[in-house]
Design a protein that fits this description.
213 residues, alpha+beta, 7 strands, 44% helix
């Protein structure tokens, strides 16, 4: 009977060892599956980023877009609004402050600061001719920091018209980073900045503007 008892105990130990090995094998299998999925996900993301970069590199660096709107205000009033840089935070959503910087090449330079982690952007006024009588005014501002992943210039043409003023903005933008270029082309409107500017200017004047190309 003693021998039978020892035999039963040995069988129990063997079964316990087998169960432990099964659990260990399952754990190794689960870890292997997790690792495979992790590598697949990381590889897929890397492939997507690479594809986006390749497509972005094939897109042109620059783009040109234009928007226009008519205001009931006189050309002098419109001109003073778009050149009154210090007052931008009062009527332009997204601009929290404007700081005058040292002049560059004899041109006015100012820094626009935005909230919620927005990029601070310095602008240089490379041309400024106020409207006079029936002659239109022209303002050209460009991004003054070549280290940013984007750049470009904006031309503002202020033309007196019957019953008001026509303001046309032409954006000549450049996006240097191919990934940013892809996002800008396919997921962002290249006229949104100008549309927001014209709508905000209309709101400043108490007008609802009609925006055209």
């Amino acid at each position: 009977m003693a021998g039978a008892s020892n035999g039963a105990g040995g069988a129990e130990e063997i079964n316990f060892a087998d169960t432990t090995e099964i659990f260990a094998a399952r754990l190794r299998l689960e870890e292997e599956i997790v690792m495979r999925w992790t590598l697949w996900i990381v590889g897929s993301l890397a492939a997507i980023v690479a594809l986006v970069a390749i497509i972005g590199a094939m897109l042109p660096n620059g783009h040109v877009a234009t928007r226009a709107a008519k205001f009931r205000e006189t050309s002098d009033v419109v001109w003073n609004a778009i050149t009154g840089y210090e007052d931008f935070p009062k009527w332009r959503p997204g601009v929290t402050s404007v700081t005058r910087m040292p002049d560059a090449n004899g041109h006015v330079v100012f820094m626009e600061k935005g909230g919620s982690g927005a990029q601070d952007i310095p602008y240089e006024i490379v041309e400024s001719v106020a409207p006079s009588g029936a002659a239109q005014g022209k303002l050209v501002a460009k991004i003054a920091d070549p280290k940013l992943p984007f750049g470009g210039s904006w031309t503002y043409e202020v033309a007196p018209t019957d019953g008001g003023t026509n303001l046309r903005i032409t954006e000549r933008g450049e996006v240097y980073n191919p990934i940013f270029r892809f996002v800008s082309k396919f997921f962002m409107s290249q006229t949104k900045t100008m549309d927001d500017y014209l709508n905000a200017l209309g709101k400043k004047f108490g007008e609802t503007v009609q925006i055209s190309e």
